[in-house]
Amino acid sequence: MKRNIGLLLIACCFLSLQTAYSSQTFADEKADVNSEQKMNELKQELEQAGVKGDNVPLTADGQLPDALIDLVINFVFLADNPILNFNENIEISENPEEGSRDWYTKNWYQSLDNISIRTIETTETYHDSSGNQVTHPIKLTGRYIDNKSDTTAILHHGYRANWNDLIRQAKIFAEDGFNVLIISSRGLNGSEGKYLSFGYYEQDDLNLWIDNEVNQTSSDQRIILMGLSMGASVTMMSQKNPHPNVAAYIEDSGYDVLFNGDTSGFDEVFEQFPFLDFIDPEQLAEQVSRRTKALLGFRLEEIAPIDSLQNSIPKLFIHGRADTGTPVSVAEELYAKSQGYKELLTVEGAEHAASYEADPELYTQTLQAFLDKVLSRNISSFNQTEQHILTGQTVDTLNLPKNVTMTLDDGRQQEVSVSKWDTKNYDEKVPGKYTFTGEIENSDVTIKNPKNLQPTVTIISHPRPEKISILNNELEISQGNQLSINSEILDGNQKPITDSWITNQIKYQLVSKTADLTNNPSATIDETGLIDTQENTATGDYNLTILFNEEIKKEITVKITSNGQNLYRLYNPNTGEHFYTLSTKEKNHLISIGWHDEKNAWMTPTSGKEVWRLYNPNSGEHFYTANKDEYNQLGNIGWRQEGIAFYSAESNGQPIYRVYNKNQTAFNHHYTSNVEERDHLLRLDWQNEGVAFYGK
């Protein structure tokens, strides 16, 4: 006949829990359950409600008295219980019994240097005595062991148990390399909250803890859940809709349903409170359910972990065969109704939640074997790294990786340390391809290497260059043309190196040496050594630098010559006239008699459409035109025809603009390739006469 811990708690379990806490299961706990004064006070309250001996007075409508239901609700669900209350400052005795929870807490947990306190926030909702809904934020507390693992075990203690309820199991997980989060259930051990709910709200808290851990580690962090007693039932209920990061869970001594109407197994309770033997458990459960529905929002039958097992999460069920409160048949039924991969461990002689104490070796071996089976991943490959070096580098100077990335058979990638590289075949003097194998340091027991795969690094050693040579016979190029620099790199024996890794690292730099870049663009060079020029590229000397690896370089001079002519512009400060000439002699003469040298006006082609120059002997001004009719017309009215001054390019050349000053009778035409100069004169009321001709 099935019995469970749920009825124990419902049927005025204040005294049955006293019995449980006096057992070996709870030997380490510091609950104030042995206070005779408090127990007497509780009996007095019941007697005042008319409950004494075999007398359980019913109300006129046949209901149990409210005072009795109030006591059950307060004792079972109220966190701040005067008899069973745990806070965060549990007392650890100076000399705890070896192997006890206190002993592990003091001698193991408190000696760790990677522990911290974690907190999350959620809300608590209930109704007060007036029926008003109360909602307020609460903070939940956990204790974290950080092993920098990609897998975290989250442990949930039992009903009104101390946070170190699972400290021995925490040690198993931590020593196997997992992160461990030991959470405190709401209302206990430093976690805030007024009421306990046997998993109804705690299941949501557990999923919040999972989300928090994933957010603080990695989106693909693997989570292992483990719960003891009520914590086991919370664990099962939390995964009715599986969390994507939960890889497996272990439930130890959980109940299947909170209440099933059975009263067997409570003789010790009845000895203390004989009136319980006369209470109809179904009536008690119904009245308590109505009260919990009004107070906390749920009925007792809604807490049924057995309805949360229809998922594929791997599960390990653990139960003591001597458990009288929640018999082993409960675990067997949970196991039978569970889907997915599952294992069941029943421990001979183990009372409730005491399977570890009964057989720690079997418990540990079973737990580790289960985790090894459901979590194990095999190394499928290592990332292949390749390095290029120059001969002459010793092993000590090679930048061999200290960590490599391994790919596991589940598709995940993870870094692992390399303790040693095998470099015995390396010869620093001989170019070639060398492959080193490494030995890894893998502390993650869930990662296996059945094929004994090893990481490799390939070192490709290249001849060391000593000199760069230029093979071009001519290093001169005219505007608008290209020149390919033909170079080679030589080794220490003055032999050309044809290794593409070497030749591809040759870089070119081209900067002006004497070329005037004020009004003309620079020549350029690309990564292949091709020098490119435009029709108006600045002429003169350029410094070409050829480099390898910033260590070896060759510098030479490249000359850019003109395929056109510089047209000089001069200015007469006395008359305001601008004069244009190709003749250096004419330019120098005018400078000697006071004209200002305004340098190059623009580049003109050496052939093309003629531009004619005329001179007015009356005003002393010069006029330039590409229009032969205009040239002849002015000649007919007294202008002196001076012949071809220069040539105009085709219409795709550089436009030369002509502007006219209507306010002057002489020196009233100006020619410029500069748009800004043209626009400036137009703003001064000069007239735009368009493009007169074209430069290069």
UniProtKB/TrEMBL annotation:
Domain Peptidase S9 prolyl oligopeptidase catalytic as annotated: residue spans: 169-376
The name this protein goes by in its record: Ig-like domain-containing protein
All residue ranges annotated as the DUF5648 domain in the record: 567-695
Alphabetically ordered keywords of this record: Signal
Residue stretches making up the Bacterial Ig-like domain: 397-442
Aminoacyl-tRNA synthetase as UniProt keyword: no
Top-level taxon of origin: Bacteria
Keyword Transcription regulation: no
Record's signal peptide: 1-27
